[in-house]
């Protein structure tokens, strides 16, 4: 099994472990501040009647919130089966089940089977992939109009935090790791694919950006 496959398998187990906790957190506190910023940027770009593709959708709170705000339909892709179990149940509870479809697996190996969408979302997903270039280019190829993402800023404390997380994961014998990729390089990849940056917000640790196809 390749290193990427091992990483993907470990990521699925890691995020499945936190599935119920992720849903309870949203039910209690709502969207995270960075997710509210991402939605603000997406609303500026326009989501009314738009189709959505969320890669690394987790328990579904982001794209389901956008569906409630006017998007037409969504596809959620996630590597953690328990995350998708929670997402499906939640979609049914919010009466969104007929407008959303979930696909289990690693987007990097599934991209040929997934249709493009007007809006593509990657909320804290780039940092979960060792191959940021491959992920960005493959997800851009599925984006017809708007590309929104949140990922770590390249600062000393984000790198320190990543190293600390790696130590904890090593203790628990998990092959999953998180990464801090170069934001300037990520932006160059996106711009080179014909997109223009329309929105950006920086928090202490996170960078939220929305691009629109020129």
Tell me about this structure:
With 214 residues, the protein is an alpha/beta fold. It has a single domain, classed as 3-Layer(aba) Sandwich (Rossmann fold), CATH 3.40.50. The chain is built from nine helices and seven strands. It has a seven-stranded mixed beta sheet, with helices on both faces. Helix 4 links the parallel strand 1 and strand 2. It is globular and about 40 Å long.
Helix content: 40-55%
- Estimate what percentage of residues fall within beta strands: 15-25%
- The spatial strand order of the largest sheet comes to 3-2-1-4-5-7-6
Which architecture per CATH? 3-Layer(aba) Sandwich
The Rg value, from CA coordinates, equals: 16 Å
Class by alpha and beta content? alpha/beta
Q: Provide the CATH topology.
A: Rossmann fold
Number of strands: 7
Per DSSP, the total helix count is 9
Q: Stretches where pLDDT falls below 50 for ≥5 residues? A: 1-6
What string gives the helices and strands in order? HHHEHEHEHEHEHHEE
- Shape type: globular
The number of distinct structural domains comes to: 1
**How many strands, what sense, and barrel or not for the largest sheet?**
7 strands, mixed
Give me the CATH superfamily: Vaccinia Virus protein VP39
What CATH first level would be assigned? Alpha Beta
